[in-house]
Amino acid sequence: VPTLPNWAVQVFQVVTILALAPLVGGIIARAEAVIQQRRGPRVLQPYYDILKLLRKETVLPAPAGLVFRAAPYVSFAAYATIPLLIPALTNFPLPLGYMADFLGVGLILALASFVVSIAAVDSGSPYAQLGSSRLRSFGALNEPTVIFVTFVLALTTHTDLPYAFGATLRSSTVQVLRPSHLLMIAAFFMLVLTETGRIPVENHGSTLEFGQIEEGRVAEHSGPGLAFLRWGSNVKQLLLYTIFANVLVVPWGMASSGRLDRVLLAIVLLFVKALGVGAVVVVIESSFAKLRLYKIPEFTVASFMLAVLAVVIFLFEPGFGDSHLSVFGAAATITAVLVLLLEFGLLRSQDVWEQLRLYALGSLVVAALAFSTAATGHGGSSLYVLGAVTIGLKAVLFPQGIRYVLRNLEVEPRVPSVLGVPSGILIAVGLSALAFVVLRPVHIGAEAALPLSALPVAVGGVLVAFLLMVLRPYAPSQLLGFLVLENAVSVASLVIAPGLPIILALLLLFDVLVGVLVFIVLVQYLAVERTAVRTDVLNRLTG
Amino acid sequence: MSWALFTLLGVPLAAVLLALFGSWRLARAATVLAGVASLGLAIAIAIFVEHGRVLAAAHGWIRIDSLGAVFLLATGLLYAMAAVFSVGYLGVDQIDADFPRFARRYFALLNLFGWSMLLVPLAADFGTLWVALELTTIISALLVAIDRTDAALEAAWKYVLIASSGLGIALLSIIVLYATGTHALGSAYLPRFVRFLAHAHGLSKDAVRLSFVLAVVGFGTKVGFVPMHTWLPDAHSEAPAPVSALLSGSLLSGAFYAILRFFQVTVASGERTFAEHVLIVFGVMSLVAASFFVLRQGSYKRLLAYSSIEHMGIIALGVGFGAPLAVAGALLHVITHASAKGLAFFGSGSLLRGYDTKEVEGVTGAGTAMPWTGPMFFAGALALCGLPLSGVFRSEFEIVAGGFARPQYVGVALVLVFVNVAFFGVIWHAGRMVLSPRAAADQDGGASPRERSAWMIAGMLGCLFVSVALGLHLPGDLSTLLSNAGHRLGPAP
């Protein structure tokens, strides 16, 4: 098998990204259409669009000048530069690969976006200018997010070169499963959604001007210029997916030398990883609604906060020292972080039905942790029973029962927070960090195998559940706050006390069941006697 | 003797069933019988374990020693008296068409509540203890809400939400303790008290401290320690009077009993000073804050509720002082406070039936208008202030004397000062209610207040008798029980 010289691999890398990008975009569009039971475009449609646009003539708006005409090409050139700098196909640096670090990549991406915004101003079109001003204001927090994501990586690896990140993660896999790394991944994924114009930020490719951001900016472009802008945005999407997968999440499956077969395998794997990320995007696009325009900052603030939390947690993590990787440890950490993230979702949500869904999802995650704990030999097979009971009670019976009662009572489903969502999330981030600060000096002294770094995440979950009850003056939401608190405690119990006898665990669940019944009785009383389930009107008794 | 444990748990449940399926008169009779029988059994069990014997049954799932027996006595006493008092307290409402249903539900819940509180000191492990305490919360929340007035609903909602959240933290403390126990006891074991005590040296000190603080915060929410006390005045003031008495004298100390179990483990693992300091901090905060609230209180039931917070602070301080005399005094205080607070809350219930108001302002001349209730309510108030002749005087005296012996001068000084502040508050308000002449406006219009039921007076007399008897003479058996229980908390030599 021939071995390619490094420069040839580098060329391969750039060509692969540029050539595959429209295909990935096309597959995502098609998959979404199929899920929504439409026929949808062919997967090769983006290529046809680009070819068609390249053949068309360019129509310039009257005030447009050199900036407007050059912008598509400058931005495309910027996108085409980035594949040189990131590990797309190889896990060793290629020629020119050290030209820029992670922040440099961010700056080149920013340049690409900046010239398009300038061009929008140059076009004189109000729609284009509106799009770019929206992008500027909503995107103001994206760069700090990137910086904090870089901090986490740099703290882990003592460098900020993308190639080095991957190498460090490969050499100690346990890094990937640290709470800080998982939170950073979540933050970066939200950033990817924002930057690629996906739901919940933007309706990808929508021509409705109310919600337009990215599409609005390029409204005045036509012909080959538009072709390069469209191609460029596909390339950007694939680039971000590549960074997400090859640097942050799964830095495996890249060629370790220039052998042709390995490089070809790496191309296939890159494609598969990109489609994997795309699949998650498709699920999100099909299950959530677009945020109203003025709610978008809540999303970017949340992503920024998660990145900040990741950095703070990183500083306190070493005290928990999970030195080796285990399936149980991985499951525990991922579950704890997921439960915490779902609580952030609950904090954001203003709708009691959505909160119920999030709670049910959280319960499923807890049950999955019970199963994986049992499967890895911790705590015995009785945990299967506990997992099954958890699903039955907390994922089905409680959410459905509460939904049934609330529907019968004709309760108003809107449950707005008494504090703005960003402030709420800021406090929640502070509370989660507090759990790490407080628990760091504590030496639990349990069996060695337990993944103790999941414990502060779970404790953070308990604190955030309190916040949830404080911020929502509605009886159903406060009940959910109590249930979420119980979920967080369950995670803590599975993490550090998986051997807790099943009979006690079942007794605890029985108590929660009775508690929920009493809560529901009280909610009914409130709804009947007070004709409202607001609890902030319960302020007569003081002093 | 293990039959006594089963009987103790069976009798209230039988009363629950009778209340659910029988007529309301049957429910009433069953409740009184169950209450009195429970008190008798509690005394018998206490005598059995007073010298340090341990009574266990059901493969060790239920177990009682001298420490648990102290709390069992307090619960038994109040359960019996509340059952008797309830007969009269509810009897006033009989004209209502809905009354039979209401009475059956009330008696069923009251017995269930009593049962769950009897279960607390019988638990042999931390898991069952938590389950029992959570049961007491959710059952009593329904009792607080039973009148379905706006205020009662508000109180019940705050209560169940705050107390359940506190118990969530308490659960976390049990989990931490369990995790640190895996080192010595293996990955899967039952978290029984005795096993922790036997292997206390194998526990991580960090984890034990963390778990103790979490337990004090979590269970302390139910004890009513400031600043987690916010549910307490609401629930105590809005619940029916017998339920208030049970909440105050039995439920609060039951939660404190859970803290004592953690205290035992913490002491056994060599962290005695730390644990005492935590208890002293929370005790002082509760005592100071509550005594000021007592001063400026306008509602006499809320006043008694704040007085409960104050007394829980005193008990925590007594244990925190650590001298054997102070610890025994604190345990005695559990019983004397139960009797005195039962008396005062029963009195307040009777006054509420007579005057139909919870405001101090609205009650005048109770000493003459209600010749039994008025003086006995006043006696309850005096007893709560720790005047001589009352049991509270004896227990507070022991706590203070123990504090001097240790010596803990700052703590003792704080106790003395703020007990006096509360004394002023209670006497000022109670004196105005009972000793003042009947207001002229009230004499003219409306039915004048009168004694409504001999059952209520009987309940009060029972509490008064216990309170005064303990002040005059401490029975030898009880003294043995207390010193044995204090010994289990391992006072420093």
Structure description:
The complex is a heterodimer of chains A (543) and B (493). Chain A has helices at residues 6-35, 45-55, 66-81, 102-123, 126-138, 142-157, 162-171, 179-195, 214-217, 223-249, 260-287, 296-316, 327-348, 352-375, 382-409, 421-439, 454-471, 475-496, 502-530. Chain A has 543 residues and is mostly helical. The radius of gyration of chain A is 25 Å and the shape is globular. The model of chain A has no long low-confidence stretch (mean pLDDT 88). Chain B is mainly α and 493 residues long. In chain B, 78% of the residues lie in helices and 1% in strands. Chain B contains 20 helices and two strands. In chain B, strand 1 and strand 2 (62-64) form a beta hairpin. The two termini of chain B are 33 Å apart. Classes of the chains: A mainly alpha (543), B mainly alpha (493). Chains A and B meet through helix 17, helix 18 and helix 19 of A and helix 5, helix 6, helix 8 and helix 9 of B.
Q: Greatest contact pair?
A: A-B, 52 and 58 residues
* Order of secondary-structure elements of chain A: HHHHHHHHHHHHHHHHHHH
Query: What is the subunit arrangement here?
Result: heterodimer
The share of residues in helices of chain A is 55-70%
For the CA atoms, what is the radius of gyration of chain B?
21 Å
Q: Please, what is the average pLDDT of chain B?
A: 92
